[in-house]
Amino acid sequence: MSPKPLDYETLNENVKKVAYAVRGELYLRASELQKEGKKIIFTNVGNPHALGQKPLTFPRQVVALCQAPFLLDDPNVGILFPADAIARAKHYLSLTSGGLGAYSDSRGLPGIRKEVAEFIERRDGYPSDPELIYLTDGASKGVMQILNTLIRNEKDGILVPVPQYPLYSAAISLFAARMKGITVRAMVIINPGNPTGQCLSEANLNELLKFCFQENLVLLADEVYQQNIYQDERPFISARKILLDMGPPIGKEVQLVSFHTVSKGYWGECGQRGGYFEMTNIPAKTVDEIYKVASVSLSPNVPGQIFMGLMVNPPKPGDISYLRFVAESKAILESLKRRAHIMTDGFNSCRNVVCNFTEGAMYSFPQIRLPPRAIEAAKSAGKAPDVFYCLKLLEATGISTVPGSGFGQKEGVFHLRTTILPAEEDMPAIMTSFKKFNDEFMEQYEDYRGYSRM
Amino acid sequence: MSPKPLDYETLNENVKKVAYAVRGELYLRASELQKEGKKIIFTNVGNPHALGQKPLTFPRQVVALCQAPFLLDDPNVGILFPADAIARAKHYLSLTSGGLGAYSDSRGLPGIRKEVAEFIERRDGYPSDPELIYLTDGASKGVMQILNTLIRNEKDGILVPVPQYPLYSAAISLFAARMKGITVRAMVIINPGNPTGQCLSEANLNELLKFCFQENLVLLADEVYQQNIYQDERPFISARKILLDMGPPIGKEVQLVSFHTVSKGYWGECGQRGGYFEMTNIPAKTVDEIYKVASVSLSPNVPGQIFMGLMVNPPKPGDISYLRFVAESKAILESLKRRAHIMTDGFNSCRNVVCNFTEGAMYSFPQIRLPPRAIEAAKSAGKAPDVFYCLKLLEATGISTVPGSGFGQKEGVFHLRTTILPAEEDMPAIMTSFKKFNDEFMEQYEDYRGYSRM
User: Does B304 touch chain A (CB under 8 A)?
Assistant: First the structure.
């Protein structure tokens, strides 16, 4: 009998080609071990609340009230909710046409797109047009929309940094079958960087934009970690600010799409799926095409849109909730900074491990210098060397990481990616457990000469 | 200078080809008129809350508490929330790993997928496996996922009913460039029907499944209106129940994917973007591929998942909120039924308009018998005849409908689609305004012989 349409052999080949390491072999094995009762520390995904981070109070109060608008008429509402949360809930409900249960415009609620534009203007010092801002179900949905608009066939390619976040390689394989003989259409930057945690300087961004101008590339700026900065030397600077600083011709010519989300920052509201993208120097006809395709999915989820509004327009000095909001925000960001240090220092104390400091974002990407005998052992086990190491780490310690090969790495060089998100009080024990595993692993696979002298 | 990558001329041609009538020319014109201050009655999208339908209280209480979990520790929570909503919020939070702010598994929360499986088993009388149920951001996202898995290249096609909901034609143009010389891979049914409002009988479903078996097609069953039934003669029966009733070979062989949502039913929670699809007779390797691709978007929004849990597991007799929940549900469904009658009767009272009763779903699809002179006038205006009629209707009355051509219709026959969702108290005035416009339009364009005699 011939295969049926949803039998594996007859599926879309581009779907089969998708590889997505963040939820790949390591994640699946970790999920199995968890089912068997092993305690797993999931550092594979930047998912702060899953590791115990508490949500910020004010935005949750506002969205809860938007979900239960009948409370706004209840004389007792003030017992559980502060007046500024009540006022803000009324404000957001007034921006909807029918509350959270109504589809919004496919680009998102106009009033929230206006708040995003005002935020961008305050951040960059240049006006921003709400009509060029589209709200999305998290940044990844926006990236997929733009890549789908850009990639015409299997001969179109996108330059992505190596190492890169595998959303990009996955989406590209989904839309483009083959990456040889290609027309390069766009360049992706992730700033602050995932998985490397670096922040791009003004000079870096200048060079990148010049390159896009010379090579006629769209710049896709993944700036979802713009709030996650753990040092003062390299603050976050948006690609858009540098582009507009450059003036014509580059500032008027280079096409830029910038992405943001409520999932990262210190909010970490991953499960809410809120995000936006902003388009700079994109012609109106293209903006309309993107609108049309967004319409097929009707509307991004409305609660996620309200989280985005709250993120770009948080409580202000003098508001009842201001001090609490600032205290909660500061506590999270300062703890993340301390955790970045504990993790980097911890990795650097391990045999054959070197690690740059996490300047921004929420990841650590140590290089693991695997001895030749470990590489041979991996080969015998039919695994890539970094996958072999990460699986052993998982089995020994419960620490679930992502092998560097999922992000791309130099030939013969091996990394892993962890988040810096485990609870601060758990961090020393995790790093001790990591060191014990790593140093024993190195002991086991190093020969007498010692790998470090090679 | 050569065009830039996001200039219209160089975009993905499949994106340009997408047509989506529900938010097409009519919707854009209606939005413009609204901006100019005209009162618009948006009956183009099934968006009940936008037309004044109030959300059901119990699910909103539960989700509000899940958004504000700190309220669960507040001794005053009982002043604003009933005990069963509090208990249910605790239940759903216990199914998450980190509350609403954490990404869930890419297939959705296992505990909610279990509640969906139990609902399907109660409905159909056959067990359902939670591992074959994937939660999605509304049904349309699930449809896109499955079509993307199925359609391999421009030679693959999908049979869709005519008239059809344009999500299907839009998604197909997105994934497949051309619809000639095609391998048909799947058949779509929408039951209860959109836009026609018909309910399929057991005999219809039997025939359709036999056809899928003979022709080796996947059946994609869009059953998002399964709660929206306005008569007793043809209750909703799921494609899955009939398939399993048929037994082998058909019951074991035909591949079926069924879609559901929280956006429709009498809940109408469109803005929350909750949905699921269930796979029957789909091989495990394919299920894994769909999981992998879903992982690229990380996770469906978690509040939407909880709405889905609540929809399949509503308050039970004896629960504190039961009577209120039932009363609210009944009021909405009975009003929808009355509105279906008002609308059908209203259309049938108009000159040159005939309309079937809306047995289910939330649409009315009257046939408008346009006189030849109206068709000529449309031609002179460069419009399709039904678009011409609908635009005139919009300008004259503010009623925003969708021309039948967006759904497909027989050559030379013209329809429009409206929802039955305007508030019941507004319905008589809307139908009076429609009749006045229609009858004057017919008067203007009919010649002396009278079109009805042709």
Answer: yes
